[in-house]
Design goal:
single chain, about 50 residues, mainly alpha, 2 helices, Small secreted protein
Length: about 50
């Protein structure tokens, strides 16, 4: 196994552990990431709309 694959499996295992032990906190974290991505997409859209 290469290091990249091991690190990926460890990250997935940590994510599963986090969801199982603290589901509320995990849900809030995912929601915050989604909000950040949505805000970034809206900002980029606004930027290009104002260019034209």
């Amino acid at each position: 196994m290469n290091v990249k694959k091991i690190v990926g499996l460890l990250a997935i295992a940590l994510l599963i552990f986090f969801v199982v032990t603290q589901p509320g906190t995990a849900a809030t974290s995912v929601q915050n990431i989604g909000d950040t991505l949505r805000n970034a997409a809206e900002s980029i859209t606004t930027f290009f709309a104002r260019l034209v």
